[in-house]
Amino acid sequence: MSAADWYAHKSLGDGLFWIQERFYQSDNRANIWLLRGSHQDVVIDTGLGLRSLPEYIDVKGLLGKDPQRKNPLLAIATHAHFDHSGGLHQFQQVGVHSAEVDALANGDNFETVTWLSDREIAEAPSPGWRARHYKVKAVQPTHILQEGDVINLGDRQLTVLHMPGHSRGSICLHDRDNKLLFSGDVVYDGSMIDWLPYSHVSDYISSCERLVGLVDSEQVDQVLPGHYNTFGAKRLHRIASAYISRAGTCPAKFSTFAWSTVAGAALWACNPRSAC
Question: Where do the Metallo-beta-lactamase domain residues begin and end (predicted)?
Answer without folding.
Answer: 29-227
